[in-house]
Amino acid sequence: MRILIICLRPLPDVLAVTPLALALRAADPDTEIDLVVPDHDRVLVGTPPFLRSVFGYDRKGYHRNRRHAAAFLKMLRAQHYDLAINLTDHERAAWMAIFSGAHRRCGHAPAALARFFGSPFRETTDCSRADAFLAIATGLGVPSDAWRGLGVDTRSAAAAAALWAAHPLPADRPVIALHVAADPPGHRWPVERWVELLDAVTARGWTPVLLASGADAGSAHDVNFLARTPVPVLGADQPLVVLAALLRRCAVLVSANHALLHVAAAQDIPHCALLRPGDLAAYAGYTAPHVLLNRRAQHCCEAYVCPSAPCLTRITVDDVLTALDTLMPAGVCV
Q1: For residue 278, what are the domain limits?
Q2: Cβ 56 vs Cβ 300: under 8 Å
Q3: Is pLDDT of 201 > 50?
Q4: Are residues 7 and 132 in the same domain?
């Protein structure tokens, strides 16, 4: 079977497709799955081993140039899909599923196009985004517990091993990964808190590393420059599947970045999530040990972009250290 998944959503939502794709593959190992994502996320997403292809769709560019849009749809039709799953609540994505030529379609569909979809999807907001997407697998008769975590291919694992070997990290102590960046600014913990946390973790005798990703790599280097003791900065300019392989070598992740928190959760890696109130349900961990830190401001707006981010600035370094005491492997003493 050949399946097309359309997810023209923010990067954390794109990564939340992982359990759905793995569940479909687990039900039928011969299934080939292609994924359509926003073009600006195509390089960062890479091509995980459980997907055949990842296509980038420039929504603004194709909207202005009908010839490019027609060529993209023609390319999709040439793949001869058996099933198209639309995870984007937008009419353009629904039309993409229809014109893909897939024999069956399910997922989001505007009322006017619902007749073209055998199983319209109504996304719930009281559970994690990954669980909401997994509901589609259940509707298709695929057990939602069929997935077994995020897959990492051999090449990505080797790239991560080379990055790790380039730094003198002790083999006898667990490593704590600190991921500083988050987008938009309203999702970010203050830089001075990250610096204080890095110094506190080092003072406790733990082994921290800074993870960098995409255009936000400069934030990690800024924290490292301000810290008392610089630490290795890993993962800059690497696709997410390499970051996933790096995370497998870490004991705990601390991050306010939804995308990397999803990667950790999908691999059962303990993580401390610094989240705003509106993110708690959609990006909560799965079964991996985790601590969700949030200090809701009295008049929280829950806006996607919040310049002052009061709900995050109320989280203290001591809050994070207490979470790390809970998440660190048994027998690791301060």
Answers
A1: 154-327
A2: no
A3: yes
A4: yes
